[in-house]
Amino acid sequence: MKKLLLTLLLTVAVSAQAPPRRIISLVPNVTEILFAIGAGPQVVAVSNYDVEPPEVRSLPTVGALVDPDTEKIISLRPDLVITYGSQTELQAQLKRVSIPFFDYRHGGLDHIMVTMRALGERTGHVDQADKAARTLQAGIDAVKTRVAGKPRPRTLLVFGREPGSLRNIYASAGRGFLHDMLIAAGGEDVLNDIEKESAQVSTEMILARKPDVILELNAANRLNDADLKAVVDPWMTLSSVPAVRNKRVIVLNGPGLTVPGPRVVDGIEKMAKALHP
Amino acid sequence: MSIRRRIAIVVSAFAAFAIAVMIWAPTVGTTSISLARAFDRSIPWHDNVDAQIFFVARLPRVLAGGLVGATLAAAGVVLQALLRNPLATPFTLGVSAGASLGAMLAVTMRLELSVLGITSIPLASFAGSLLATAIVYALASSQRRGLSTNVLLLAGVTLNAFFSALILFVQYLADFAEALRAIRWMMGGLDVASYFPIVAALPFIVISFAAFAMMTRTLNLLSVGAEAAASRGVEIVKAQRLAFVSASLATGAAVSLGGPIGFIGIIVPHLVRLMVGADHRIVLPASALFGAAFLVLCDLAARTLMSPLEIPVGVVTALIGGPFFLWLLVKRS
Amino acid sequence: MRDLLWADNVSFRYAAGAPLVVEGVTVRLADGALAGILGPNGSGKTTLLRLLSGTRRPTSGRVLIGDRPLDQLSRRDAARQIAVVPQETELAFEYRAIEIVLMGRHPHLGVFTVEGPDDIRIAQEALAATGTSHLSDRFFHELSGGEKQRIVIAAALAQLGHSFSAPSVALLDEPTASLDLGYQLEISSLLTRLNQDHGVTMAISTHDLNMAASICRELILMRDGRVLAAGPTSEVLTPDNVRRLYDVEADVHVNDETGHITVLPVRRIDSGSRLPAPGSRGNPA
Questions:
Q1: What CATH number belongs to C3-268?
Q2: Which domains, and CATH codes, for chain B?
Q3: Closest residue to C53, CB basis, from B85, B220, B231
Q4: Are B46 and A240 in contact, with CB atoms under 8 Å apart?
Q5: Over the stretch B123-144, which tens digit does the pLDDT of each residue have?
Q6: Is B308 on the interface with C (CB under 8 A)?
């Protein structure tokens, strides 16, 4: 379905012209993809939140998801703007001034490769994009092969909660990119049955579902032992949970761990190491 | 029947209902547990899932719900009498907006301090509620003769609007995940998974309830009118200050424990008045008890109705409270 | 007869810098008195009643109850001797008549004390004295204007306590203002009865000259916060004083047989900024 939509979109939007020379990307992970497929030199501006790869840090910024600076975007005379699916207003304005745009939305793990190839076609880097996509797929497959056959620990993948407590815990649920990463890394999602990308989980649910491993994503760049203890400590309340009892509450930290782009393999590697030490 | 007897009987009936709900609520949930196992001391704590579900997941949650529900309902009663307005809520005077702003700032500034097991968000929200209370109090008492309830109301409404704007501003500057987390906090949540936050909120709530208990008859007189109350022997300035400060303090503590859970403070007092009349000596304790039972039941619905998903408890109370509030407005006009 | 409530040269302003609304007023209410306070809107009648009841403190001067300065009494002690019937009573919640009357017992009860048999008996006597025993369990907001006013008067009586015999004063602020003719008469005769049969000392502010003439034995005329004239009704209620008070030309008739005084406004003298006076009513300042 997604592929069909993309092809449709491409046939409509791409009027078989020369590849764009001035690309503006408002979506940080897509910026990373652009650089990965060799379209980096064409990028002239990025969003306020872009930091990777380092080359983008010197580029002009043009707002972000909810507050794109339309005037600045147009004044930079782009011939392709990468927008997020929810930026409908920006898209309408771009249409009015006849600036083509690429409509991106997050999807599952496979969607990264799909996006790479689509952008490759769009930016005139078909071969490089295909190569990057293959490399990425190979990296993912390598992890998958390594963990194949091993028992898959039932895992709760937590990506947010109130600091210092077990309140308002959010975890990856039965579909989406994080879920796919967890599966690729050889885990079994304890929230498999919840057909959402994320869900709030109560302590009762955690106690009842008894995860073998709790993986917790933490945005901090570095965590010393004391920090780590502070992060893990609240979990000790739930001592009947196998993950807690067996000291398998594992904090994964560092930037870009969960960016749906070329660096995703690192994230999956880390998860796999945590799940299958 | 003497008045004392009537008060005792009605309040006992409400107490029985509240206690029954509080005993029943922790025995139900999305998981079926064996109570026999939960209370079996011979099973080591670390192996006893039933006990942990009962004592960690459910009991603190029910206790927090009872405490927050009782406090918000009682504070609603007090503020409605103080402002002589049955549509007032514990949040009318800006306390919850202050608390929300505090929580929002704690989330976006990634405050991770903790005092005696109380974490940054409850601390910051309590501080925010105190700040809001102080501002409204200062504004309303700048006039020489005690608190002006009109100024109180205006200051509260204005502060609510202003703090909401600040909240939106902070939210706009925040990261996506942070903004989402703060919004989630504002929907209320009682899954505290610990007794610390309850124990921490308790002293403020107990002090406020002691003040409430002393002012029940005064609240009757206040709801007839400040001038009339003064001529009947009420030290009006003292009484208004005590009512405002104690209700705000209690609300601040409750909100820091469970988030700004809406509508409890208006639905419960109204239902209680429909049942037992307007005498605050009955309305106040009955509302506190009924509020406790009501919020525990709402939270029970929140944790079971859409299982395995949870509905934020503030959404449940709003879904019940919104239509109720409208019905009330229509009925009054 | 000794003075029960005495305002000694009192002045009052609501806020610093605001004009004086009561200026140098001296009023003496003797035990058993039934005094009327007359004056145009904004003349300071309501404020004077607030000063007399002690809910406001005079900016200068003092108010004495018996021989004690009122401001030395706690609010509770003052309220046991001085009750107020406000012009209108608007309830925020739906109380029953008996509950309103029992609220009058507030200054006699401790913080956690509940009304006992004595209090209930006093409330019932107050209901009987105002002819409202049958309304006891009705909701206040469902009563007619006259019934409401009688309930509020009953509450004031309950406040003054045991068979209303202790030295006590009821201050009534335009008790008939929002009532029709029938209720006005009813309240007038109730007030006379309470004063004569139960010995309740009263001061009544009113715009109704004829009611004042028929029930009050003495009158205090106020204009612009000052006392224009005070004394026995027959001496004070003269055409000259009515003109000075309201800028209205009036015929004042004294019935030779009964001694009843009737006042008939004829015309407005100074048609300045004020609205035509006869029958017009408004909120006092």
A1: 3.40.50.300
A2: 3-332 (1.10.3470.10)
A3: B231
A4: yes
A5: 899 999 999 999 988 887 765 5
A6: no
